[in-house]
Design goal:
Layout: H1 23-45, H2 53-66, H3 82-94, H4 98-123, H5 126-139, H6 152-173, H7 176-192, H8 197-210, H9 215-239, H10 243-258, H11 263-280, H12 282-295, H13 301-315, H14 330-339, H15 350-363, H16 366-371, H17 374-382, H18 390-399, E1 406-410, H19 414-420, E2 423-424, H20 441-455, E3 459-464, H21 478-490, E4 491-499, E5 504-508, H22 510-513, E6 521-528
Parallel strand pairs: 1-2, 1-3
Antiparallel strand pairs: 3-6, 4-5, 4-6
C-alpha cells in the first residue's frame, strides 16, 4: 500500500501584498517641509526682537487685561480689542516678554500655514496644499511685510482661514453647524482688526454664489454667527463702563483717521511697498502667476478670484498701505502659488521648481533673517525709532519705582509702559494721533494735559524723536508748548538715551543732569521732585 503524502494546508488568509512606495508622493511633503522650516528657523532666531510701536500697544493693553482692566479704560487705541486679547493669551502662556509675544505669533503663524495647506488640498490636491503652505510661510516672514513682528494682521488671517475652510466643508455637506462655526470664526477675525470684516463679506458672497436659492436662510445663520463675537464684546465693554470711549476710538475717531489720505496719496504710498514685497518674493509671485493661468478656467476660479479681490480690499482701508497691511493679501497669493502644480505640462518638475522658488525667496533675504542682530534689524527697518532704547529706559523706571506708581510718556512709545509694568496716567498712549489733521486733535491734547497735571506721575518720559510725534504743519502746538514748563516746575532729569545710528549713550541719575547730548534724537526721563 502506497502511503500518501498529505497536501500542505492552505493558509487561513493570504498575506496581502505590500503596496509599493510611491516616492513621488513623498517628495512633495519632504521638500515643502524643508521650505517651511527655513522661515520658521528665522522666527525662532528672532524671538527676542525688541517690540515695535504697534506691538508695544497691544502688549500693554494685553498686560492690563491680564490684570483685570478692560480695554480703553487705562489705554485706548482705534483698533478693536481682539489683537490685545490674543497678546494677553500668549503672554499668559509664554510670559510677558518680547519672546512671549513672538512665541504667540509663531503659534498663530503655524496655524495659518496648516490651514492654508488644508484649503489648498481641498481645492486642488495635496501637492497644491504643500506649495501654498510653504509659500505662505516664506511670504509671511518677509521683511517687506514686517513679518517677524506680531501685527494684528497675522491674528486676522488665522481665524479667517479657519472660517474659509469650514465654508468649503459646508459646500460639500450643507450642514448648518459648519455654517455657524464658519461665521463665528469670521466674526473673531473682525475683532482682531476692522478690515477683517472684508473676509466675512467674502464668505457671504461665496454662500450666495454656491446656493442662491437658499441664500437668505444661509446668510441669516452665517451673519448671526459672525455678529456674535462683536455683540458679546460690546456687552462686556458696556458692563465695564468703557463702551462710550470704545466707540469714540474705534468708530468715530477711526472714521476720521480713515478719511485723511487722498487717493493720490494712497497711490504714492502703495507703489514703494508693493515694489519692495515683489522684489523680495518675485520667485513665489511667479508661481502665483502660473497658478492664475492654471486655475483661470477651472471650478476654483470664482473662489480664488473673489478671495483675492476681498483680500486686496482688506489692505486698502484708509489708503495707507503700510507694510504689514499686506499680510492680509498673502493667503490668496499663496493659494494661487499652490494652484501652479495643476499645470499638467510641468507636473513632473514642479516639486523642484516650487521648492527652489520658495527656498530662494527666503535665502535672498538671508542677511536680514539669519545674520543681522536685533539692533541692526530695528535700525534698518525703523530707523531712529527708540524701540531698542525702550528696554533699558523701562528697566530703570521699574527698578526705581513702586508697583502702583504711574507714569506718563510724552511721545508714542507704549512699549515702555509694557516693559516697565507701570500704568499710564492717561489713556492716550500715542501723541501722533494728536498731531493728525482731524477735528479731535486739539481736544485730545487738552485731555492729555489735564490727565497728566491732575495725576502728577512719578515719572515723565519725553521722546524727542520725530517718528514718535509725526508733527504736521497744521498740528496744534498746545502739547509741545506745555510740557517744557511742566517738567521744569516739578521734575528733575534722571535719565537720558542719546540715540545715534551706530550707538546710543545712556546716562542716569546725576550723570544725566549734566550730560550734553551728542545726537539730535533723545529720550529723556524725568522724576517728580517729591521723591529722592
Amino acid at each position: 500500500m502506497v502511503k500518501k503524502t498529505p497536501a500542505p494546508k492552505a493558509p487561513l488568509a493570504a498575506a496581502p501584498a505590500k503596496a509599493p512606495i510611491v516616492w513621488s508622493n513623498l517628495l512633495w511633503p519632504a521638500l515643502m517641509i524643508c521650505a517651511i522650516l527655513l522661515p520658521l528657523a528665522a522666527r525662532i532666531r528672532l524671538l527676542d526682537m525688541p517690540l515695535e510701536r504697534d506691538e508695544g500697544e497691544y502688549a500693554y493693553m494685553g498686560q492690563l487685561m491680564l490684570h483685570g482692566i478692560a480695554p480703553y479704560k487705562v489705554a485706548a487705541n482705534m483698533k478693536l480689542p481682539g489683537a490685545s486679547a490674543a497678546y494677553a493669551a500668549a503672554m499668559a502662556i509664554f510670559g510677558q516678554t518680547p519672546t512671549g509675544v513672538h512665541l504667540g505669533l509663531l503659534i498663530v503663524n503655524l496655524a495659518a500655514i496648516a490651514l492654508i495647506y488644508l484649503i489648498g488640498r481641498k481645492l486642488f490636491r495635496p501637492a497644491a496644499g504643500w506649495v501654498a503652505a510653504a509659500s505662505y510661510a516664506a511670504l509671511s516672514v518677509s521683511p517687506g511685510v514686517l513679518g517677524i513682528w506680531a501685527h494684528a494682521t497675522h491674528f486676522v488671517v488665522a481665524p479667517a482661514l479657519g472660517g474659509i475652510l469650514l465654508l468649503l466643508y459646508w459646500d460639500e455637506t450643507r450642514r448648518n453647524q459648519l455654517l455657524f462655526w464658519s461665521g463665528l470664526l469670521f466674526g473673531i477675525a473682525f475683532l482682531m482688526k476692522q478690515p477683517g470684516i472684508l473676509f466675512a463679506i467674502f464668505g457671504a458672497v461665496f454662500l450666495v454664489y454656491k446656493n442662491w436659492r437658499g441664500a437668505l436662510r444661509n446668510l441669516a445663520i452665517f451673519g448671526a454667527a459672525a455678529a456674535l463675537p462683536f455683540g458679546l464684546m460690546c456687552f462686556w465693554l458696556w458692563r465695564t463702563g468703557v463702551f462710550e470711549r470704545f466707540w469714540f476710538w474705534t468708530f468715530t475717531y477711526a472714521r476720521s483717521y480713515g478719511s485723511m489720505q487722498s487717493f493720490s496719496d494712497g497711490l504714492t504710498a502703495f507703489g514703494p511697498v508693493a515694489f519692495q514685497i515683489a522684489q523680495e518674493n518675485w520667485a513665489i509671485l511667479a508661481l502665483a502667476v502660473a497658478g492664475i493661468v492654471a486655475a483661470w478656467k477651472g471650478p476654483q476660479a470664482f473662489f480664488l478670484g473673489t478671495f483675492f479681490v476681498f483680500s486686496f480690499l482688506a489692505v486698502c482701508p484708509g489708503l495707507y498701505f503700510r507694510e504689514h497691511y499686506f499680510v492680509l493679501l498673502l493667503p490668496a497669493i499663496a493659494l494661487f502659488a499652490g494652484a501652479s502644480v495643476t499645470l499638467a505640462q510641468t507636473r513632473a518638475v514642479m516639486p523642484w521648481i516650487a521648492s527652489a522658488a520658495i527656498i530662494f525667496s527666503v535665502l535672498a533675504q538671508g542677511s536680514f533673517l539669519f545674520e543681522m542682530t536685533p539692533l541692526q534689524i530695528s535700525r534698518r527697518t525703523f530707523g531712529i525709532n527708540p524701540f531698542p532704547e525702550a528696554i533699558p529706559i523701562a528697566a530703570y523706571i521699574k527698578a526705581h519705582s513702586a508697583e502702583n506708581d504711574r507714569i506718563a510718556i510724552v511721545g508714542s512709545e507704549p512699549e515702555i509702559y509694557f516693559y516697565a509694568s507701570r500704568q499710564s496716567v492717561t489713556p492716550f498712549v500715542y501723541v501722533y494721533s494728536m498731531m493728525e489733521p482731524h477735528p479731535f486733535a486739539l481736544k485730545m491734547q487738552e485731555e492729555f494735559i489735564r490727565d497728566v497735571e491732575a495725576a502728577r506721575p512719578e515719572y515723565v518720559v519725553v521722546v524727542n524723536v520725530r517718528p514718535s510725534w509725526l508733527r504736521q504743519p497744521s498740528s496744534p502746538t498746545r502739547l509741545s508748548d506745555w510740557f517744557p514748563s511742566f517738567v521744569e516746575k516739578g521734575y528733575r532729569e534722571v535719565g537720558v538715551a542719546d540715540i545715534g545710528r551706530e550707538q546710543t549713550n545712556y546716562k542716569w541719575d546725576e550723570d544725566a543732569a549734566y550730560y550734553v547730548p551728542r545726537f539730535n534724537n533723545t529720550v529723556v526721563v524725568y522724576r517728580h521732585n517729591g521723591h529722592k
